[in-house]
Amino acid sequence: MASLPTQFPGVTVATKANVYFDGKVVSHSVIFADGSKKTLGLIYPGSYHFGTGAPERMEIVAGSCKVTLDGQTVVKAYDAGTYFDVPGKSGFTIEVAGGICEYICSFL
Question: What is the predicted pLDDT for the residue at 2?
Answer without folding.
Answer: 57
